[in-house]
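1st attempt posting a full record on here, be nice pls
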Amino acid sequence: MRSNEFYSKIDIADEDKPRAEQYLYSKGLEQHIFIATILANWQSEQEEHNQRKIRYSEIATIYRYDKRIRNVLYKYISYIEEFLRARVLDKYSSDTKQDFWIPEIQRSLSNGKSLKAILDDLLFSNLLRQVMKIPEIRDKAIFVKEHITKNKDALIELRNDVMHNKFLLLYGGFKVCYVDGVKKATLRANIFNFANFLPSGVKEKFFTDINNCKENRNKENETKWDLPEWLTLTI
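the predicted structure (as tokens):
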């Protein structure tokens, strides 16, 4: 059985076994095997002279850490979406006869739908596309000025990855983005790119929230917090 194979390859404390059974069922056995395999490969590179079994506490911690990062990103994705919708709606709710509407908005307006309802239902990618067509809003609400096409596409992809609950720490499909003129496709680079779409003040709070994800907030009945240092994101 795959579960027996998993347990044979990890070091797990007796008190963690009931918790592990719960997590294997709710989060997926194959997801746990995937994390354990990646960890084992990384460990062989990072800890060349210290070959050992992967601890279950490492797997559980990485899962929780990744979930914290996704929750923070979700919070600030919501902020960006609400912010951009608000800019468009406040400016044009009573003045919808414009020639810059993207087809998705123009068709719905022609069918008598309110701008608010349209914006509420609009895909994030289309919302960004619309904002980019309104210079008066774009210049004040989009804070990224260089490599905007690549960085916007990376923002959309990261947003979709978060919404689909992809495991970000071990994900290899990030879009290329430019941070300080340097082209990268890592989680860290994509987080910096994401932050650059936030207003000053909000951006600083976002960085604090991301950095706080690595803190040990364990309760007494939880598996030991055991986050590998080389996997930790510090922004």
